[in-house]
Amino acid sequence: MLAALLSGCMQLFFHPQRTLVDTPQRHGIEYRTDEFRAADGAKLNAWFLPARTGNGGKAKGTVLFLHGNAENISTHFRSVAWLPDEGFNVLVLDYRGYGDSEGVPSLAGMQLDIDAAMRHLVEDPAIDPDRIVVYGQSLGGALAIAYVAHSAYRSHIRAVVIDSAFSDYRLIVRQKLASTWLTWPLQWLPWMTVDDTYSPAASVASISPLPLLLLHGDKDEVVPFEHSQMLFELARDPKELWIVPGAGHTESVASEAVRKRLVAYLVRHTSD
User: Of 145, 94, 143, which Cα lies nearest the Cα of 117?
Assistant: First the structure.
């Protein structure tokens, strides 16, 4: 029983799905499938959505999108499928164990996956390797903070956008356990069972001097927006925090007004 509880805490963060249920093509969006390998040999799958620039124009930049803990890229790509129309390339990565990517999910392995995606972008002759933005949602945001803080590719990153992320692995599990009477007595478990090596709270200050934007809906019932407030307080300048009224979990960019504001932010930081 205890062993099951110990292993179950970390599994709260990973809910992969192998089946791809949708594609950008079904929505009239141009894309290609990219494959590359992580440093430990895991073969990874990603979708590349090219910027719609017209007349052979250059993309404004490239966004590496890191999705949340459930399903796979086929259910998450629509969160950023509007960015190509705004002149940005997008690479949507599936972590190991998700979709068509090999392996079993783990926090350490996912750091290797993100690194492989960055390497893939930097080595792609068709994109500008010095106009990359890392954009993470929920678990993807937590992963992005830890990755960018220590990445060997930091010099290629222009900005970091984090949407609906939690501030600490142990804290979010403790909050979930405390939310029901059945699991309330188990709040001590995260301190024994949850790997906090990649805690966003411990890494966020090291993102500076890269620009950091934190987005969070004030109606988020999955990850309370106070987590982004905590990350904002711990981060160093330059930093911005946008609390989006009425938005739920990962719904911040559902608003056309927020999208326009985000595009302006991206253009500001990817322009010379």
Answer: 94
At residue 104, the 3 state secondary structure works out as coil
260 burial type by CB count under 10 A (0-12 exposed, 13-18 middle, 19+ buried):
exposed
For residue range 15-31, list pLDDT tens digits in order.
999 999 999 999 999 99
Number of Cβ within a 10 Å radius of residue 226: 14
What is the 8-class DSSP label of residue 152?
T
Q: Is 208 exposed, middle or buried (0-12, 13-18, 19+ CB in 10 A)?
A: middle
Backbone region of residue 243 per phi and psi (left: phi > 0; alpha: psi in -120 to 50; beta: other values): beta
Edge-to-edge strands of the sheet including 132-137?
Answer: 32-37, 43-49, 88-94, 61-66, 132-137, 157-163, 212-217, 239-244
Based on DSSP, count helices (H) and strands (E) in the chain, helices before strands: 9, 10
Residues of the chain below pLDDT 50? 1-7, 178, 181-188, 190-192
pTM: 0.92
Cα 230 to Cα 221: distance, rounded to the nearest angstrom: 17
CA pair distance 94, 47, nearest whole angstrom: 9
What SS3 state is found at 83?
Answer: coil
Which tokens is 234 given? 């711990």
Cβ contact 130:157 at 8 Å? no
Q: Residue with structure tokens 């600490």?
A: 168
Interatomic CA distance for residues 230 and 159, integer angstroms: 19
Nearest CA-CA partner of 270 in 159, 161, 121: 159
